[in-house]
């Protein structure tokens, strides 16, 4: 991504809580229609995690093709508390960042980590010190209902933020309903061409004394529209004239793609010097197509779940293992639990194929040794495994059946339907979180293959290109991917900032 644009024309950015650089990738990949390359140049970044900071530096640092013209950004790998950029960074036009959101997140039921929300104050402190023309806070959707956001709204235009105003996403500068305005701060990445539905709070402030009318700033305009349920493409376009439907996960997951083992390419490790240290890698995005090595019961669960299905489809289903090493997934044809909650393993079954109960019937009957002994080696309760005789036509075969659901999953219809769910090919993916490789954490099973999505697929659903460079362990890179701002959303934010700071005709 080389640039011929003069450095004086570039918009200078400071990225706080930068992670691996999803938002920066969005900014750098935005190009106006003048053919002169990128218009954003990141001059500094702050990230405390060494692996994430290493990934950031590898992609945007000096010598990288994403550094645009001039030197790459100065990457501060460490705590932001009390940190200020060196004067050598020069004028900073834009400050962006996503302060840690654990305390705001709905997944943080114990509210642990809420003390880290004070880091959003560090973001504001840097804004006050650097006086950018624009600042952008990116966070989880609950941020707009938090005391911290209420405090920000109360402070804006006063004291150390007296020269700033928050941009109303509706464009109504005369004041409107605060609840409605807060709702409009939530941008869905799918509306801007991302392959996932991911709502993020995007709070934008502009300086009132920078010689640009704040009222000329406009929030990003959606490029794609969510179709109404049950409508076809034509009807969807009538709902939102001129806008194509949301892009779907099929663009990444629609074609068979053999995985490349269970580990990243071996033997790669680089000493990146202080403060990054020695990190695994580098790995290109296309090299992250690795899978897990699941236990037999986990693999059976994957096999048992139909297209677009989830944990609820495991009810009444068993892994049936025969003594010759072969196995089947079978589904109970009648009640699978008794009045007191006990499993009822005997009776009529149908064989499950591709997650769907087929027309092939079996009869499961007791054997002389019904319960599997503790020495079976299974980590599951022996109350969920049974020795049986399987009657398949005229053939009788001894087998062990192991229940694939759990008492909790059987009891609860409420709660997340995404647990152990398959992604939908004709929809954007669900939000890619940091543990996307664990189907028990959400709808992260491949739409057609019996496995979770890979790091490669998750990165592509986030919008990262094939040549993006990663450093860190499997777990660290997964966190980097899941914590990132979807690149298309970052690109849309870049367009809005560019139109404000570089209006046509200026």
TrEMBL record:
<feature type="region of interest" description="Disordered">
    <location>
        <begin position="248"/>
        <end position="284"/>
    </location>
</feature>
<keyword id="KW-0949">S-adenosyl-L-methionine</keyword>
<keyword id="KW-0680">Restriction system</keyword>
<dbReference type="InterPro" id="IPR029063">
    <property type="entry name" value="SAM-dependent_MTases_sf"/>
</dbReference>
<dbReference type="InterPro" id="IPR050390">
    <property type="entry name" value="C5-Methyltransferase"/>
</dbReference>
<dbReference type="InterPro" id="IPR018117">
    <property type="entry name" value="C5_DNA_meth_AS"/>
</dbReference>
<dbReference type="GO" id="GO:0032259">
    <property type="term" value="P:methylation"/>
</dbReference>
<feature type="active site">
    <location>
        <position position="101"/>
    </location>
</feature>
<dbReference type="GO" id="GO:0008168">
    <property type="term" value="F:methyltransferase activity"/>
</dbReference>
<keyword id="KW-0808">Transferase</keyword>
<dbReference type="InterPro" id="IPR031303">
    <property type="entry name" value="C5_meth_CS"/>
</dbReference>
<comment type="similarity">
    <text>Belongs to the class I-like SAM-binding methyltransferase superfamily. C5-methyltransferase family.</text>
</comment>
<dbReference type="Pfam" id="PF00145">
    <property type="entry name" value="DNA_methylase"/>
</dbReference>
<keyword id="KW-0489">Methyltransferase</keyword>
<dbReference type="InterPro" id="IPR001525">
    <property type="entry name" value="C5_MeTfrase"/>
</dbReference>
<protein>
    <recommendedName>
        <fullName>DNA (cytosine-5-)-methyltransferase</fullName>
        <ecNumber>2.1.1.37</ecNumber>
    </recommendedName>
</protein>
């Amino acid at each position: 991504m080389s640039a011929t644009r003069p450095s004086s024309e570039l918009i200078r950015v400071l990225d706080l809580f930068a992670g691996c650089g999803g938002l920066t990738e969005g900014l750098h990949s935005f190009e106006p229609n003048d053919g002169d390359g990128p218009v954003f140049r990141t001059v500094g970044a702050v990230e405390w995690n060494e692996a994430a900071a290493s990934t950031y530096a590898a992609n945007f640092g000096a010598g990288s093709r994403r550094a645009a013209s001039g030197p790459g950004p100065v990457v501060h790998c460490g705590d932001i508390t009390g940190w200020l950029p060196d004067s050598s960074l020069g004028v900073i036009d834009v400050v962006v960042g996503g302060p840690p959101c654990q305390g705001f997140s709905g997944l943080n039921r114990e509210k642990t980590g809420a003390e880290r929300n004070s880091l959003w104050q560090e973001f504001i402190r840097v804004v006050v010190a650097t006086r950018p023309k624009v600042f952008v806070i990116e966070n989880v959707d609950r941020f707009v209902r938090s005391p911290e956001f209420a405090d920000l709204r109360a402070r804006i235009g006063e004291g150390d933020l007296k020269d700033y105003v928050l941009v109303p996403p509706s464009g109504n500068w005369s004041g409107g309903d605060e609840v409605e305005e807060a709702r409009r701060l939530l941008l869905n990445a799918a509306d801007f061409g991302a392959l996932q539905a991911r709502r993020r709070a995007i709070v934008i402030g502009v300086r009132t004394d920078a010689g640009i009318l704040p009222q000329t700033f406009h929030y990003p305009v959606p490029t794609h529209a969510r179709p109404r349920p049950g409508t076809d493409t034509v009807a969807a376009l009538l709902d939102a004239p001129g806008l194509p439907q949301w892009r779907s996960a099929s663009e990444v997951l629609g074609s068979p793609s053999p995985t490349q083992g269970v580990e990243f390419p071996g033997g790669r490790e680089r000493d990146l010097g202080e403060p990054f240290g020695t990190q695994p890698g580098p790995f290109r995005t296309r090299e992250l197509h690795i899978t897990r090595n699941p236990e037999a019961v986990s693999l059976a669960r994957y096999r048992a779940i139909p297209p677009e299905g989830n944990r609820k489809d495991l009810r009444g289903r068993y892994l049936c293992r025969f003594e010759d090493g072969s196995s089947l997934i079978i589904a109970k044809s009648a009640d699978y639990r008794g009045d007191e909650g006990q499993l009822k393993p005997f009776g009529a079954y149908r064989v499950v194929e591709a997650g769907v109960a087929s027309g092939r019937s079996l009869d499961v009957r007791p054997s002389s040794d019904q319960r599997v002994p503790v020495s079976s080696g299974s980590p599951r309760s022996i109350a969920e495994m049974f020795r049986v005789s399987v009657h398949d036509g005229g053939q009788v075969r001894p087998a062990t059946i192991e229940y694939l659901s759990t008492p909790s999953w059987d009891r609860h219809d409420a709660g997340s339907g995404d647990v152990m769910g398959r992604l939908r090919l004709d929809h954007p993916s669900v939000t890619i979180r940091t543990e996307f490789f664990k189907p028990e954490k959400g709808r992260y099973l491949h739409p057609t293959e019996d496995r979770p999505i890979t790091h490669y697929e998750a990165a592509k659903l986030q919008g990262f290109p094939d040549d993006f460079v990663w450093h860190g362990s499997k777990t660290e890179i997964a966190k980097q991917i899941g914590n990132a701002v979807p690149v298309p959303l970052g690109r849309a934010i870049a367009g809005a900032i560019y139109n404000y700071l570089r209006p046509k005709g200026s």
